[in-house]
């Protein structure tokens, strides 16, 4: 009890973890004044979780998850119950029709989804389907420009991993690290390059897929028509052509 009294005298606030019986994913660290009444604590928690003050029952647990007491007297200050930093206040919602009951706030599968019949959708104006149809009638090629899976495959015939290369635009030099299709990018063939200098956009990982490894900001994946392979040695940044 000496530690509890010391906290009340030396610091008028406490940081408590808050959990909720109905909301399994709800957990928050909230600072409370020890001078606040239990009723004021409930007001603050109502704004956080949606359980009404009149339906809220509070339990206090220590940092070993042992229940210490019920905060049952709304008129008493929080400090009366001697909470310490790291203790937990657990909310129990006594209202069976509360917004927190039944999992509605956490499980979206319980929410009824809007649906419409195919016939009703066809009768509607301003839908994406109608827009897509008008676009196709005005410009038939607009929706048919998807590149084939073998797009630029022929340009990769003389490009292989390990080749020195130069990439346009900018005459950026490096080494080929990947040749092939990239499922996270557009259809067709791509070439992965590790630049000699930090001129790239990544480290060989694009949209969560790793195609090769290289230092950060040294990697790029480009179309093969941007890549020339051959005798492209690493450039000396301090080399001068003329004096």
TrEMBL record:
Transmembrane regions: none
Listed InterPro entries: CAP-Gly_dom_sf, CAP-Gly_domain, TBCB_Ubl, Ubiquitin-like_dom, Ubiquitin-like_domsf
Cited Pfam families: CAP_GLY, Ubiquitin_2
Subcellular location: Cytoplasm
Any one cellular-component term (Gene Ontology): nucleus
Keyword vocabulary terms for this entry: Chaperone, Cytoplasm
Keyword field contains Cytoplasm: yes
Any GO MF annotation of the entry: microtubule plus-end binding
GO annotation (BP), single: tubulin complex assembly
Domain CAP-Gly: 181-223
Annotated family: Belongs to the TBCB family.
UniProt name for this protein: CAP-Gly domain-containing protein
Organism whose genome encodes this protein: Lithocarpus litseifolius
């Amino acid at each position: 009890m000496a530690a509890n009294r010391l906290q009340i005298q030396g610091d008028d606030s406490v940081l408590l973890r808050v959990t909720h019986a109905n909301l399994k994913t709800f957990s928050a660290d909230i600072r409370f004044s020890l001078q606040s009444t239990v009723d004021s604590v409930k007001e603050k928690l109502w704004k956080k979780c949606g359980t009404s003050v009149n339906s809220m029952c509070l339990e206090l647990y220590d940092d070993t998850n042992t229940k210490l007491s019920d905060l049952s007297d709304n008129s008493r200050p929080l400090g009366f119950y001697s909470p310490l930093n790291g203790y937990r206040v657990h909310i129990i919602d006594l209202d069976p029709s509360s917004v927190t009951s039944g999992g509605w706030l956490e499980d979206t599968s319980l929410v009824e989804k809007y649906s419409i019949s195919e016939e009703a959708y066809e009768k509607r104006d301003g839908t994406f389907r109608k827009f897509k149809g008008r676009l196709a009638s005005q410009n038939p090629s607009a929706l048919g420009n998807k590149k084939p899976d073998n797009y630029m495959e022929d340009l990769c015939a003389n490009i292989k991993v390990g080749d020195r290369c130069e990439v346009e635009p900018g005459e950026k030099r490096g080494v080929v690290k990947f040749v092939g299709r990239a499922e996270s990018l557009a259809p067709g063939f791509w070439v992965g390059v590790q630049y000699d200098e930090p001129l790239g956009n990544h480290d060989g990982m694009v949209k969560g897929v790793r195609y090769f490894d290289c230092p950060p900001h040294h990697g790029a994946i480009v179309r093969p028509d941007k890549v020339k392979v051959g005798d492209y040695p690493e450039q000396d940044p301090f080399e001068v052509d003329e004096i």
